[in-house]
Amino acid sequence: MKTIEGKVVVLGAQGVGKTSMVVRYIGKMFSHHISPTIGASFFTCNINKGEIRVKLQVWDTAGQERFRSMAPMYYRNANAALLVFDITHPSSFSSIKSWVKELQRNVEEPLILCVVGNKTDLESQRKISREEAEQYAQSIAATYFEASALNDSGIEDIFLCCADGMVTLSQDKLVKTLRVTPSMNGRSDRDGQHDRVVVDHPTATEQRSPFCC
Amino acid sequence: MKICGPKLSLCGLIISVWGIIQLVSMGLFYYMNSVALLEDLPIEESYDDAKKFYADAENGYSMNAYNFVICSVWDYRIRQLLRMAGLTDGGSIFTSEFGVNSNSLQGVEDLGQTYDEGASNVADESLDSGVGESGLNDSDIRESDTVNVELMTSDLPRDILDNDLIVSDDDNDPRNLLMENEDWKAKERHVFILSSSGKPVYSRYGSEDKMVTLFGVMQALVSIIEDSDDTMESIHFGNNVIVFQRRGPLILVAVSKKRDSVVFLNNQLTYVYNQIVSVLTLMQINRIFKARQNYDLRRLLSGSERLIDHLLQFHETEPSIFVGGISCIPMPPSQRESISSAIVSTCSKIKNLVFAVLVANNRLITLVRKKRYSMSPSDLHLILNMVASSESLKTAEIWTPICLPHFNANGFLHAHVSYLTEDTQACLLLLTVDQEIFFQLSEAKMKLTERLKKNNSISVIDEVLKSPPSTWLSLHEIGVSKIRHFIYKCRKTYNVLSSPLQPPYDTPEDANKLFTKYQTTYFNMMDSNPQSQGYYQDSPEESVICLITDKYEILVAMEPLMKKQASLDLINRLIQWIQKEEDKFFLSNIPYL
């Protein structure tokens, strides 16, 4: 059995429900009184895709403005980004646009992008139409999802999509940040060594580049 | 014959409104360099050089324009501040605001005497007429480097004062509604933060947007006193105290109706300021305000208000904070040592790890540090505050930047924060200067949890947290049951021990009353005479005694009406007991990584 380990970063404005979404998926629960995240929370989860086990390292970042300057630390070497907005808040939708621009500037490796419109339980107060969001997602080659952490609808699909994307990415030889372990007994020493270097020191590639060019 | 009826107050209102209009228009004329006003400029009688004359004249015009505008704004806004300051007890509203005004705006008085004095004094008198003379004279403002404005409380009936105020304020203005709100007015301690340009940053209660004018007044007060090379420190009237603190580009204001000491409120404001620095770093704050003086800092602080709210609460209710020390979870010393050594052996190989801190229930279990670095109690309180006010920590590992102002106010440390297991209260913080070693720390934490599980430490911690406090410390068993409560601080190690709150202090209100008494006693003693060693305050409810020596500080609440010598004997017995048992309560040995 092959194991793929990839990094998922969850981005979006304050209060759009990033933590609620992640906690709903990983902890299978929902709380109305969740306190704002500080810095970023780290979760892991495993998804089995046929013969392949996908291990997701989820970085649930804080939406507060003060952590904005810290964001590169969290999205560096990510393989997937979940861009979450609140369908009742137009400003949160425009904020994901600026996140996308930032990611495009700073992340060199291929990145799976998922745009997520959260809080579909507040359909009556919707300000961003499905079409508008879908159109935008298409323009940046992202997949669009609508979800409600409160009703637990549509959340599983997002993470499954990430896992699928990682499996596809793992076939690309150029992607260095994904850690692929063939199988426990069939793993060659050289491979294991190589992978570990990349993952345990996520900056190894990053640190070198600014000084070379 | 009635003289003080609605007609007179209407007349007064019109005159006072006219005063404001007059001041604004005078400001405008000066701004437009109106030649008719040339006579009133502070320039010399004759000039040889035309250029110098123009320069002086222009200077004079703009200065006068500025003064007049300030004067008119002042005229309107000072009433609002005074109202705010009075909060619920209308009795402390005072009337001759222009005492402050004319004094601090000396220049205006000299230049535009006719206009300024004329307009404002008429307005002033009309407001005063129903109330009589009271308030502050110029002589109340002491000519010293620091100003403590003492205001006298008016003894006049409340309804007259209230009527008076309606004249000066537009009650239909929705912005004033908050200040009319009874709940808001009933709060006993307020804290406000604003930028030096008067932009609201934080208010403990209510929305800052609804008190923009109030923030304007505070800014005006501070800057006008600063203009005359003074510093506004505090305003006192009756039981009320307003304390001002200027910190770089920020102004912090504490308002209390509890007769709090200035030192206590300053201590609280310092904590609040440190909390803001901890969130943003001093460098970032200075850089932002250097680039844009009128920056709205709330943008960067959004989501952090709850940290400040919680800190204020924490500061008022946690004994170890106001005496500036740290309280630990009681534990057999060998047990504490085995936890510390488990941390040292798991983490010693991690480069750049500066501190490892294990806390539970707002108290410290143990602390391990790199050589040459030390953790100040107030930095530790900020850490405890962060842990206590972040529920989200319980579900995951957190990786966050945090600045510890005493360690380094200009840079962030990175903290790996997580609870040891899902069902324990013990929370581990690993603080490093290297932002790349999250996974290394995460692994170390996992190993540490295994070790602590194996050597039973986690269950020991859980047991201690579950056991009633009296198992560790019972005043009755020590034989000092006449002592109701105490706070003890070791001056060398900053460890603090306080007894559990028992009747009559078991309700939050009663505990609060006692702490207020402690705070006043403690800070008065610190403030008034650093040499004195003891302070004794007797009241029908209890006697509060504060003793300070080279080795320790102790605050004790005793049963009332005890003989002084008997009380001192009991305290001595208590101190002897503490010194014998302190291993259990204190973290005396902080191992190196």
From TrEMBL, chain A:
<dbReference type="InterPro" id="IPR001806">
    <property type="entry name" value="Small_GTPase"/>
</dbReference>
<dbReference type="Pfam" id="PF00071">
    <property type="entry name" value="Ras"/>
</dbReference>
<dbReference type="GO" id="GO:0005525">
    <property type="term" value="F:GTP binding"/>
</dbReference>
<keyword id="KW-0547">Nucleotide-binding</keyword>
<comment type="similarity">
    <text>Belongs to the small GTPase superfamily. Rab family.</text>
</comment>
<dbReference type="InterPro" id="IPR005225">
    <property type="entry name" value="Small_GTP-bd"/>
</dbReference>
<dbReference type="GO" id="GO:0003924">
    <property type="term" value="F:GTPase activity"/>
</dbReference>
<dbReference type="InterPro" id="IPR027417">
    <property type="entry name" value="P-loop_NTPase"/>
</dbReference>
<protein>
    <submittedName>
        <fullName>Uncharacterized protein</fullName>
    </submittedName>
</protein>
UniProtKB/TrEMBL annotation, chain B:
<dbReference type="InterPro" id="IPR043971">
    <property type="entry name" value="FUZ/MON1/HPS1_longin_2"/>
</dbReference>
<dbReference type="InterPro" id="IPR011012">
    <property type="entry name" value="Longin-like_dom_sf"/>
</dbReference>
<dbReference type="GO" id="GO:0032510">
    <property type="term" value="P:endosome to lysosome transport via multivesicular body sorting pathway"/>
</dbReference>
<feature type="domain" description="FUZ/MON1/HPS1 second Longin">
    <location>
        <begin position="351"/>
        <end position="449"/>
    </location>
</feature>
<protein>
    <recommendedName>
        <fullName>Vacuolar fusion protein MON1 homolog</fullName>
    </recommendedName>
</protein>
<dbReference type="GO" id="GO:0006623">
    <property type="term" value="P:protein targeting to vacuole"/>
</dbReference>
<dbReference type="GO" id="GO:0035658">
    <property type="term" value="C:Mon1-Ccz1 complex"/>
</dbReference>
<dbReference type="InterPro" id="IPR043972">
    <property type="entry name" value="FUZ/MON1/HPS1_longin_1"/>
</dbReference>
<dbReference type="Pfam" id="PF19037">
    <property type="entry name" value="Fuz_longin_2"/>
</dbReference>
<dbReference type="Pfam" id="PF19038">
    <property type="entry name" value="Fuz_longin_3"/>
</dbReference>
<dbReference type="InterPro" id="IPR004353">
    <property type="entry name" value="Mon1"/>
</dbReference>
<dbReference type="InterPro" id="IPR043970">
    <property type="entry name" value="FUZ/MON1/HPS1_longin_3"/>
</dbReference>
<comment type="function">
    <text>Plays an important role in membrane trafficking through the secretory apparatus.</text>
</comment>
<feature type="domain" description="FUZ/MON1/HPS1 first Longin">
    <location>
        <begin position="189"/>
        <end position="311"/>
    </location>
</feature>
<dbReference type="Pfam" id="PF19036">
    <property type="entry name" value="Fuz_longin_1"/>
</dbReference>
<comment type="similarity">
    <text>Belongs to the MON1/SAND family.</text>
</comment>
<feature type="domain" description="FUZ/MON1/HPS1 third Longin">
    <location>
        <begin position="483"/>
        <end position="582"/>
    </location>
</feature>
